[in-house]
């Protein structure tokens, strides 16, 4: 086993850089491809460490990681999902409602490990460096931990699905999470039969990938690069290099 | 240039997995090490594409990327920072106040590129799949885009610093961002003289890294692994393998 690069290597060698982009572009929100194979502690330990090394405002590290494997807890959470999803479905109409009803939006029972990542807003007291004005920064830090774990999981061959169709207070109560703690993400984790070539909602025709060219502004809100956008050829090169991007 | 792995490769080969963990563990919130060297379009294009491939609730892709390079805009933003930071400082007392005053908390003028990543909450209408119950999911999606960019930047040798000491409405006005849009992150981007071995706030003695062993719960809130925690040896192995972790 070769030692990894020094922490101060910058930039990475091309193959290492490629690996980071591959994790980013082939990461998927998994609902339907979970395998029952257990996740070894060595892999789960690495994933949790990756999450723990997310950036956090004022270095407050506001997160906790609640691992859920018991069938009873999972079933309780899935019941909450089902109830909330029935409510959600009624908010769509016509063809959208039909399509919505056909989508599988969680893999709670299929995934061997469920993980609730939470935010303790008072971990380091009321006053937090960097949170004095934008008070939601600690919630955002916790989301960075989610994304770290998601990308590390992709590299490990572990799929992650973020389930968000819950009444938060019900989820919190079902998991015994104290009131002062904010549950940020309920994640399903497991090995997968495949990582889909594209996001499932894109494949299903729910929405299309937006052209990045329309989303990047220069100096002024709304000012795209236009026909001479000097960044556009580089987006195109990425799409070509990572066929799935 | 070798073609990258197929999108369906899972898990990654060991060296590729290592690269992902290296990006995660050696990523830093940069304030003091920026170099004036410009970021080539090819690199900036890759970073933006990485951000654009973040997960988003209901595939709504609610983000925009406002690039700021003009010295005038940067100076305007730095003024807002200075004013807010003067207010922030008064919230700390004694030794903490002295230490706070010595910390450099932004690199707005030093970094060649500034980037505001925003969230358009109505991009795909009022009703969004997955946002029906947890209404902040689109804000969280945008944070995932920030973290994707941050990790890709580490692989490219580009440092990123997230500046959060602003009154949001003032920042928004200074950048001409419409009221209905939520600015999520104001980032400073540039090549760096070095990536610090540890987070700057940890080095400065502001706060210490928490032991992950205390943050992971099993099945029940508060139930750590205790003395026989089967995950702990694997955290320890990570700390050893990535000396900086």
Intertermini distance of chain A: 31 Å
Radius of gyration of chain A: 20 Å
Instruction: Determine the oligomeric state from the structure.
Output: homodimer
Number of strands of chain A: 5
Order of helices and strands of chain A: HHEHHEHEHEHEH
**What's the number of helices of chain A?**
8
Overall 3D form of chain A: globular
The neighbouring-strand order within the major sheet of chain A is 1-2-4-3
Characterize the biggest β-sheet of chain A.
4 strands, antiparallel
Q: β content of chain A, as a range?
A: 5-15%
| Range of helix content of chain A | 25-40%
In the predicted model, the low-confidence regions of chain A spanning at least 5 consecutive residues are none
Mean pLDDT of chain A: 95
Largest interface: A-B, 132 and 132 residues
**SS content category of chain A:** alpha+beta
Provide an overview of this structure:
- The structure is a homodimer of 245-residue chains.
- With 245 residues, chain A is an alpha+beta fold.
- Chain A is built from eight helices and five strands; from the N terminus they run ααβααβαβαβαβα.
- The first copy, chain A, has a four-stranded antiparallel sheet with strand order 1-2-4-3, sandwiched between helices.
- In chain A, helix 1 crosses helix 5.
- The longest helix of chain A is centred in the middle third of the chain and has 20 residues.
């Amino acid at each position: 086993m070769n030692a990894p690069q020094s922490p101060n290597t910058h930039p990475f060698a091309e193959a290492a850089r490629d690996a980071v982009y591959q994790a980013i572009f082939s990461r998927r929100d998994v609902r339907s491809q979970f395998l029952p194979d257990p996740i070894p502690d060595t892999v789960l330990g690495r994933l949790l460490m990756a999450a723990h090394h997310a950036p956090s405002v004022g270095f407050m590290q506001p997160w906790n990681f609640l691992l859920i494997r018991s069938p009873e807890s999972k079933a309780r959470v899935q019941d909450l999902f089902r109830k909330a999803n029935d409510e959600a479905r009624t908010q769509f109409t016509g063809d959208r409602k039909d399509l919505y009803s056909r989508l599988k939006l969680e893999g709670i029972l299929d995934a061997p490990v469920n993980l609730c990542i939470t935010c303790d807003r008072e971990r380091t007291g009321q006053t937090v460096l960097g949170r004095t004005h934008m008070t939601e920064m600690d919630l955002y830090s916790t989301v960075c931990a989610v994304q770290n774990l998601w990308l590390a999981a992709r590299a490990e061959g572990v799929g992650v699905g973020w389930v968000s169709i819950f009444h938060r207070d019900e989820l919190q109560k079902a998991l015994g999470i104290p009131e002062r703690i904010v549950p940020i993400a309920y994640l399903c984790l497991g090995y997968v039969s495949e990582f889909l070539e594209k996001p499932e909602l894109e494949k299903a025709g729910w929405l299309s990938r937006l052209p990045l060219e329309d989303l990047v502004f220069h100096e002024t809100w709304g000012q795209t690069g236009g026909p001479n956008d000097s960044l556009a050829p580089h987006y195109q090169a990425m799409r070509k290099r990572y066929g799935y991007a």
